[in-house]
Recover the amino acids of this structure.
């Protein structure tokens, strides 16, 4: 028979401390996993901001950070979120944005939310709308057409032409009315919500009310614009704002419908904003471990982004990671060659000190002078003469 001992004084406190530390470790791995930002079925409008808040508190080493995992892990963390928001306010003005994020979570999910970054999904009260509610793919197309116009009225004639390009508007007018009815049922909440109708229509045009419906692409573009403005103004919280915007981007606009012509302009605008956020964060990063993920993401988005390639090579070399620097430089040369651009070549050994970068010289006999790359102006301190010589990797092995 197992003997049980009565709990000693302080045991409960120690257990709570252990649970808090374990929650903090789980939370650290959760916020670093990109799937955490995507799994926002419970709180699509607040989880991304909360992840950023967690990062900020963990970086500050504050005791509140160990408790935040509970908010992410529970279906109903409103009361805890309110308490943590109050604590964050008490800790100082530097955590003001953390308090805002927690307060947003405490308010609960929006009545209606539409996720478009990475693919289309609709949430009512934080619960995904099942596919059976749509009845027609055309109804989903209609929703994305309205979202792509960012709340601006879209003429009915244009909608009918896009939905049924080969048919007469005389025959498709009633079909559009049916789709609008389906869309209203999908977006309407059982209690009617707190704002106006999500779809506003008259005899000539239709629009989606982005003040009533929480649309992730709108939140991202707004956050990105604010963050980039703060970055250009060198605001002290620019890095935090940029990180918040970065987390909100969970994929290309309507990635599950890449051939939708009406989606392309907003897709381009969203990707451009994301690229600007990544560049700003890479520029603010203190070391290569913080900078490299952003630079690699830029290269993934545009394999011919020369600035990102060269920044990555320079950063790896500066950190002494010569093998990686060599591999990344070879990848850069391959990409530039594919598009007929002369790659920038080091003025010295690739695996030695960080050299001036310059363009490959013009062919022999040409009147064109060598074109210097802009990266030449971004020289970093060379290694001291006392530093051991690095081996140079060549196509035929290594040389001392």
């Amino acid at each position: 028979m197992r003997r049980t001992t009565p709990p000693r004084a302080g045991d409960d406190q120690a257990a709570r401390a252990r649970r808090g530390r374990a929650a903090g470790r789980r939370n650290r791995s959760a916020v670093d996993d990109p799937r955490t930002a995507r799994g926002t079925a419970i709180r699509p409008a607040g989880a991304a901001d909360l992840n950023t808040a967690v990062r900020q508190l963990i970086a500050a080493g504050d005791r509140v950070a160990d408790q935040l995992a509970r908010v992410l892990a529970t279906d109903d963390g409103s009361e805890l979120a309110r308490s943590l928001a109050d604590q964050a306010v008490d800790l100082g003005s530097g955590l003001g944005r953390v308090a805002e994020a927690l307060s947003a979570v405490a308010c609960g999910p929006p009545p209606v939310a539409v996720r478009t970054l990475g693919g289309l999904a609709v949430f009512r009260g934080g619960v995904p709308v099942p596919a059976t509610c749509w009845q027609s793919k055309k109804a989903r197309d209609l929703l994305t057409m309205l979202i792509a116009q960012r709340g601006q009225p879209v003429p009915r004639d244009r909608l009918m032409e896009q939905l049924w390009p080969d048919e007469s508007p005389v025959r498709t007018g009633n079909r559009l009315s049916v789709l609008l009815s389906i869309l209203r049922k999908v977006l309407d909440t059982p209690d009617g919500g707190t704002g106006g109708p999500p779809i506003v229509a008259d005899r000539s045009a239709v629009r989606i009310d982005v003040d009533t419906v929480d649309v992730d692409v709108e939140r991202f573009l707004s956050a990105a614009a604010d963050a980039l403005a703060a970055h250009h103004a060198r605001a002290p919280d620019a890095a935090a704002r940029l990180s918040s915007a970065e987390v909100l981007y969970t994929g290309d606009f309507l990635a599950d419908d890449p051939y939708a012509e009406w989606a392309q302009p907003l897709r381009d605008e969203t990707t451009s904003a994301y690229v600007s956020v990544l560049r700003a964060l890479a520029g603010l990063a203190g070391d290569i471990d913080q900078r490299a993920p952003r630079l690699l993401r830029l290269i993934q988005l545009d394999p011919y982004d020369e600035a990102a390639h060269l920044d990555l090579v320079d950063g790896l070399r500066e950190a002494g990671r010569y093998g990686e620097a060599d591999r990344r430089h070879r990848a850069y040369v391959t990409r530039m060659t594919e598009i007929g651009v002369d790659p920038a070549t080091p003025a010295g050994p690739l695996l030695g000190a960080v050299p001036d970068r310059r363009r490959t010289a013009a062919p022999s006999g040409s009147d064109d002078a060598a074109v210097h790359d802009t990266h030449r102006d971004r020289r970093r301190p060379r290694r001291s003469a006392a530093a051991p010589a690095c081996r140079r990797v060549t196509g035929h092995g290594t040389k001392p």
